[in-house]
Specification:
The protein is α/β, with parallel strands linked by helices. The protein has 5 helices and 8 strands; from the N terminus they run H-E-H-E-E-H-E-H-E-E-E-H-E. It is globular and about 40 Å long. The relative contact order is 0.25.
Length: 155
């Protein structure tokens, strides 16, 4: 069990766990997850951590087939600028390794913005906390569990 799975179970949220054999040579963990699970790329969401201009770390959750707009995530959180967070800062604040960062059960709860495209689906997939492990849940449940904000953050 990962902290993310434990959080969902404790909250009694309807979910499904999907496990697949992760290939260490894969260049895109999210695209690999979609392919191995046989799920459309725009239903599998990646978790990215960015640093705002005030040095706050925040989470962006977006389809693996899309690119995060730094301008849009900064704007959604009332900041002027955002950049990808340092790998060590990501792992220290979330408790997860890159490629397995879950938006759920993070060591330090970070402000979270979920791309509004999540609402196009009854369920979406996010990392359950390690490479090769995904959790499927309703977007509204993800919003509730992360106290997340829904906004357009892809360009």
């Amino acid at each position: 069990m990962t902290p993310g799975i434990n959080l969902v179970k404790k909250a009694k949220i309807t979910h499904k766990i999907h496990e697949y054999s992760h290939d260490e040579s894969s260049e895109s963990y999210g695209l690999e997850a979609a392919e191995k699970m046989g799920v459309a790329e725009d239903r599998v969401f990646k978790t990215l951590v960015v640093a705002l201009d005030n040095n706050d770390l925040v989470v962006g959750i977006l389809p693996v087939s899309s690119l995060l707009s730094m301008k849009l995530i900064a704007k959604a959180l009332g900041a002027k600028k955002a950049v990808m967070a340092d790998k060590a800062d990501v792992e220290r604040s979330t408790g997860y390794v890159l490629g397995g960062v879950s938006p759920l059960g993070q060591k330090k709860r970070l402000k979270t913005v979920i791309d509004s495209s999540a609402k196009n689906y009854s369920t979406i997939y996010v990392s359950a906390g390690r490479r090769g492990l995904e959790i499927e849940l309703a977007p509204d449940d993800l919003i509730k569990l992360t106290s997340g904000l829904l906004a357009k953050i892809i360009s």
